[in-house]
Amino acid sequence: MHPLFQKIIDIFLPPRCLKCGKILGDTNGLCPECFNQINFITRPYCQRCGLPLPEHGHKKDMLCGHCAADSKSPFRMNRAAVCYDEYSKPLILNFKFHDRTENAPFLARWLLLGGKDIFAAGTDVIIPIPLHYTRMIKRRYNQSALLAKELNKLCNIPVDLDSVVRHRKTKPQVEFSGHERIKNVQGAFRVKHPEKLCGKRVLLIDDVMTTGSTLRECALAILKAGAASVDTLTVARVIK
Fold first, then answer.
1. Which of 221, 218, 214, 219 lies closest to 237, judged by CA?
2. pLDDT confidence bin for 5, thresholds 50/70/90
């Protein structure tokens, strides 16, 4: 949009904080008060899974205890921009379930910040976690796909919306915990076009990482199709 047109629109419809609704002086998304409440994930964190580590006694390339003991992880790296807590939760839930799709560009900027390690290591293609077609009809949009498209505008890495499908309908993961989450998504993903992913460094995008079960199942399908590596990047993650 032309800057002049944007200024005219801002006069009649001034930008507001995406969280509290306060009128802003610019289009950054959050007012200073709301922005300062967000808990960004910064070093030190686990080199592989991105889990925050205690400040004292940890070097840059440390692994958490779980990753040190897990030699079969399908991920090269997991990263998230912020902690999923009372401050970030309203932004993400409004975006995901309440048609606040205008949050996508702002959240994509967080993804770019949170994924700097992944981009430095090299990424060939971005794939959003797909929705089953029945849920897509009900929700009308895939929040992960919107994030991926906005991230593409920031980093110019191509987005693939077709190669991976969620061919088995699953119940919402929020209804399960622990091992039940793993069972719920087993075999839910299929790669339709393995030739597009063979040898590629794939970046999976989603809104929130809770236990990682959905991301893991999708990554396994992608690796089975011949991808060189799979990283995951989410706006937020649950920190226990």
1. 214
2. very low
